[in-house]
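tool_log.txt
---
The assistant was asked to compare two proteins side by side. It first ran the structure predictor on the initial sequence, then on the second. Raw inputs and outputs are pasted verbatim so the downstream comparison step can read them without reformatting.
(1)
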Amino acid sequence: MIVYGHEPDGATIVKMEAGQRLEPGMTLTSIDDSLLTCALLESQPGQLWRVKFESAERLTQALDRYGRRIDETIHLDPTYWRTTPEAYRSVYAEKPGSLEIPSAGLHFSEELLNRIADKGVELAYITLHVGATEILAVRHIGTEEVEDHNVRSEFFEVGDESAAKINRALAEKRRIVAVGTTVMRTLESLAVRNEPKAAIRPQAAWTDLYIYPGFQFKVVDALLTNLHRPRSSHIVLTAAFAGKDLVMRSYSEILENGGFEFDMFGDSMLIL
């Protein structure tokens, strides 16, 4: 079983091994931890299931004790996660809970952040619980029209201090740079019902905002994002922000020159 992330109603998205005979209503019990049970709620495409763990706290403990990192975009030795866990978190990560990495943040070191701050750039940190939106089957747009695609909800938290910094930048007409598509999605979720550049308020919530060409951006002025695969919700967001023509020209140049890596631990682009 691969655990991907949580849903607003408390359900968890998991992927089951092919060939397992499963039906909604079944309850699975962990061999390693008999106190952890998993009730199957609903099957979904791509061997995905919505399930309910009892309890959520024991799930976190079990993942920490028995789990190992599995990534669909890279191939690493199975022991790598245990021996190098710091590779899977940004240097500024603080709160546990996210089951995936907001990977654009991996490009920063403490030294680089200090250099950025020394230049007068103000840093605002938010909490992102990245999960099911990073599954390749979920990121991939299988519908004929990109507008008909659905993205999953993710939890975020923007505290008082960070909201104040963002509002100060908005009021002073300073550039706001989102580090990653999930940050972009979060910040624009705060302002989706506001007038452009209006103040946002701190909040902890779930967002199912889907950004595609035609979206009106109200907060973010620049985006740092990793390179994304074709027909993914991430590249559609990038095209919505930068313009389809510019993104297509950029990716054509990237593919023509070669040597670039996509997705997690890959290369990135800064769109100003």
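(2)
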Amino acid sequence: MNAGDTQVWRDKKRYLWLLGLIAPTALFIALPIIAGLNRLGWHVAAQLPFWIGPILIYVLLPALDLRFGADGQNAPDEVMEALENDRYYRYCTYAYIPCQYASLVAGAYLFTATDLSWLGVDGSLSWFAKIGLALSVGALGGVGINTAHELGHKKVRLERWLSKITLAQTGYGHFYVEHNRGHHVRVATPEDPASGRFGESFWTFFPRSVVGGLRSAWELETARLRRLGLSPWSPKALLSNDVLNAWLMSVVLFGALIAAFGPAVIPFLVIQAVYGFSLLESVNYIEHYGLLRRTRANGRYERCTPEHSWNSDHIVTNLFLYHLQRHSDHHANPTRRYQTLRSMAESPNLPSGYASLIGLTYLPPLWRRLMDHRVLAHYGGDITRVNIAPRRRAEILARHGAAEPAAA
């Protein structure tokens, strides 16, 4: 191709990344709608916008993914360095954090207020509205974990601290350690608590991943500090202990909110935190379900490749999750910034975006009908290549007429 024929590549999503700020500002978008409905006397209908978070995740985003489909644009090699160094993209993620905390404080106020006449509410919110409000704030906290995920992989010290600040809302600060030093090492192996196993329901995976991730984070950080000659509990190590200082941020944050709004805010804080990290764990379950790295002759696992992560290139959810669905490239290049991640042809592909699939993870029969045959197809029908839930291993192997593979 002649130089004169070369077209300048442009990121068609450059300004669409600002749509990622809808999640942390959705509550403020909902408030004038609520006030307007109340002024019209539609008080029952006015309670529905408090559920904007679940509506966005389970209804709007799946519908938009179906409408707009896959992205199909990868950045060419010659623009990667410039795109990586373009600070506009990191500012898009930084902007999430003040919006997130403004919504958290506003949610705490609305949950505990006894006079909301300015909103057209007689007295305090009903419990239906309160639960919707807590789930909506939890939804932005769950998406915020993904923002923290993007920031926590970077080498810039500021971004690493911003990652912990973002995680404080859900009390999931240990994710900063476990994801980077645990999950990325053990991904798609039986040892990884955050990799979903074939035949394992989300409701079995959820507690296994939560407890296993917490335990793993503590063990990894304790081992790191001891290599430095420090006790994980010593005052000297407190600032260096990436688990304790992240948890301390949650303690300070929750303590400040309880001091400001009273003990009545505690149910709000618990509901939003649990729902927020449940969304993360649902995505964890989806990302590597049933995928398994081979064991080499030396007993070590093969290198993680694009075939060990489920991919989705559906553009709308990718805009909300900073290309998290281009997960194969992320595991191949963990420090690569979201705007440069590519969709890889060799990776297995999901039938839709994460938003469309999260709700299905709650319904094991539907999830298995959707995904189990895709896992098998990825391995050419060889069930012995699959990461199977240990409790169901004998049953599943027998059902597929396969024997336990011989030890290496």
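---
observation on (2): The radius of gyration is 22 Å. Residues 200 and 391 are 9 Å apart (CA to CA).
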